[in-house]
User: Which sequence fits this backbone?
């Protein structure tokens, strides 16, 4: 699978996060635009679309206003489960999972100070350095006598 | 149709300016905006369609479906008379703004 095809697939999943009414109206055209995108345009496309999705959910849009499907998230109702909300949920779940894994991978952030301390602890104690436990052992030996 | 005097967003203004030239499909609008702004304003698909959705709902832009040679349909967007009026109002507002800036000596005539 080429990089372009992979990016298109990922973009298709991203478009699933739009409200259904908006996606049905403009999704195909947005995917068509992405198909003709040059490699350097992909960051803009992903960033812009992600912001657009958030805006659409938070602020709303004329396409979605007053046309909310009451059963959009009700897969187990009287009717048979619809593929759209299931795909929608899957895409959101994958996005959250990837985010959590990425956050776990990056956390804790590399800390120069802690690395220095660890190096110091791991270093062998030089022979000239007096043994800090020497006095205690001597005192115990005296007491046992 | 009464046009609201509220300023248009930068993206909406660019879209209306692109459509003032000719009927365009989504990708055509993106290319036209890039060309008109000499690459300074890049419109992404998220911003483009969010704005088109609003412009369609307010009646400033209209849409038509055109059948292509291969039989596939392509949606094209055009400026409505209301959209043209809104564009004129906005350009006049920007012109007044520029005149005010020029009066205050804020505008370099060389365009720098």
Assistant:
């Amino acid at each position: 699978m080429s990089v372009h095809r992979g990016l298109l697939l990922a973009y298709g999943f991203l478009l699933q996060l739009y409200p259904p009414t908006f996606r049905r109206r403009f999704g195909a055209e947005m995917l068509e635009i992405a198909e003709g995108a040059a490699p350097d345009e992909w960051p803009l496309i992903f960033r812009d679309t992600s912001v657009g999705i958030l805006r659409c959910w938070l602020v709303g849009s004329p396409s979605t206003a007053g046309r909310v499907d009451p059963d959009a998230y009700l897969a187990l109702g009287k009717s048979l489960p619809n593929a759209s909300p299931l795909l929608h949920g899957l895409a959101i779940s994958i996005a959250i999972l990837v985010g959590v894994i990425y956050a776990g991978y990056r956390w804790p952030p590399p800390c120069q100070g802690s690395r220095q301390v660890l190096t110091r602890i791991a270093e062998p104690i030089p022979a000239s350095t007096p043994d800090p436990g020497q006095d205690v052992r001597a005192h115990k030996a005296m007491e046992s006598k | 149709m009464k046009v609201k005097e509220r300023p248009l967003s930068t993206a909406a203004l660019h879209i209306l300016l692109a459509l003032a030239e000719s009927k365009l499909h989504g990708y055509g609008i993106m290319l036209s905006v890039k060309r008109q702004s000499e690459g300074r304003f890049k419109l992404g698909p998220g911003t483009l369609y969010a704005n088109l959705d609003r412009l369609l709902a307010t009646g400033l832009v209209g849409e038509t479906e055109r059948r292509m040679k291969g039989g596939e349909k392509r949606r094209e967007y055009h400026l409505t008379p209301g959209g043209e009026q809104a564009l004129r109002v906005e350009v006049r507002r920007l012109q007044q703004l520029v005149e005010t800036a020029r009066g205050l000596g804020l505008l370099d005539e060389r365009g720098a």
The interface with chain B takes residues 22, 25-26, 29-30, 32-34, 36, 44-45, 47-53, 55-56, 61-63 of chain A (CB under 8 Å).
